[in-house]
Amino acid sequence: MKLLIVDDNKYVVEGLKRQLNWSAFGIDEIFGCYSVAQAKSIMEKEEIDFLISDIEMPEENGFELLSWMQEKGMDTQKLLLTSYADFHYAKAAIDYKCSQYLLKPIETSKLEEVMIEQVDSRVKYQREKRLLQCGNDWLSHQSIIKEMFWKDVLDELIFCRDNSAIYRIKKEGLTYEPDQQFCVGLLCFEPDIGKQRLTQGLLGFSCENVWNEIAEKNGIEAEAIMYNGPFQYAVILEEKWKMDHIKRTLEQFIQAFVPFYHGRVQCYFAENVCIDEIAVMVRKLEGQALENLNRESGIIYERNSPETAKELFHDPEAEIWEELLQRGKLEELYKSIREYFAHLKQIENLNATFLEVVLMDWNMIAHNVLVSHNMTTYQMLSRVRNQEHALLALKSVSCMEELIEEEVRKIWELVSYVEKTDTMIADIRRYIDKHLDSVTRSEISEEFYLSPNYLSKLFRKETGSSLSVYIQNVRMSRAKQLLLETNYSISEIATETGYPSFAHFSKQFKKFVGKTPNEYRKGI
């Protein structure tokens, strides 16, 4: 597919060319120009799939380009960029059937999100266009049926042995035989440490797109490419293709995918698998992947589990790591962590069980440090830890290293913050003001990662008032202000200040002020 970028600022054009890994979206040609006239010249010669254009340009603007494209009947996906949020621009963009209207500078994550939608829409449009030209909607229907069939096979919902798969094959007009043999591949992706990681959505899109392009060139077709969990995809192929042909296609896929993925790509591969054994084989390949965490990119064939090198593995130096973190000696700690993981990366047949041990040790270190500073471990780890990253860390030595280093930094930032009691008490007060309608001690302790008892003790020590009395004082002060300065009903004021019961609010107000809310409002 082809992309055209139009902007009178050449730095914007060059920046957009480099901002994304466009090949991951199936875009293999990018054109850049600096005026509408140049854009028209390119579009008269090239069939452009995507246009990203500035609006404000000398001589002719972006809307004039869209008008010209409309007259020419061009079906290009259109995205407009502008430095100003203007209602008239947004309205005009809709009138010209522009897919997106975006403000400059656009963040990479936002541009990536938009392009996933645009490319997906374009692929569907082109497919529908081909089907209409062929007058063959049956193909599209069969593609969906085939996808659902293989999904049910992988989920172990249908089998040939109980005739459920045979029934589906006959009913839905699929061309498979009950005893037919297939090749099964499990594609596993591991990003390099410190490199920008593709989102799961973009990884899936890129994987399928690159596979389809290479397979089409080699004249073969996968029966299914299915998501199989974080950073894994299952590929199912009929054995009517020559085995050397399939292996060459897999090798070409890996060679094409590695450069822009910035990481390792392995394909665990098995042949001669019947329909009833496919789900079991995928699980077996998953197990094999977890037993080969230090593998380089390439094809790995299904075999029995290797012996693990237990004698080369040793636990992290937990006491040393904990002491360094307690004392804030982060550079020494990072050095120790990197030396440890450099050793792990040299161990052949290292499996996921070892990484589970490493994570348990690290969790204990984090727990001890947090508890020593009166912080709650569960809230901190559940909110600070990226759960997708944690799942990947159990399958990747590099990702485990990255996760621990990232959490070292976050824990130390939090410890340093908690030690600045003046700043934290001021933040707690602001939090109470902002959430006065519902704030509780447990909510505050969770927000600031402090144990409830320590929170109460610290607040009294720093302010001279208990937390509960302080919250009640703030609520009553706010209630008095609302009674005098607004026309809110007393029930509304009660809710606004954290008293869902009108009767309880009135009772507390009289106890605090010496008057009922009505008497106070009337100045009695």
From TrEMBL:
Keyword Ribonucleoprotein: no
Molecular function as annotated in GO: DNA-binding transcription factor activity; sequence-specific DNA binding
InterPro entries for the chain: CheY-like_superfamily, Homeodomain-like_sf, HTH_AraC, HTH_AraC-typ_CS, Sig_transdc_resp-reg_receiver, Tscrpt_reg_AraC-type_HTH
An individual GO BP term: phosphorelay signal transduction system
Record-annotated HTH araC/xylS-type domain positions: 426-523
Pfam families in UniProt: HTH_18, Response_reg
Keywords, ordered alphabetically: DNA-binding, Phosphoprotein, Transcription, Transcription regulation
Its job: May play the central regulatory role in sporulation. It may be an element of the effector pathway responsible for the activation of sporulation genes in response to nutritional stress. Spo0A may act in concert with spo0H (a sigma factor) to control the expression of some genes that are critical to the sporulation process.
Domain Response regulatory per the UniProt entry, residue ranges: 2-119
CDD domains for the chain: REC_YesN-like
Modified residues (4-aspartylphosphate): D54
Organism superkingdom: Bacteria
Protein name in the entry: Stage 0 sporulation protein A homolog
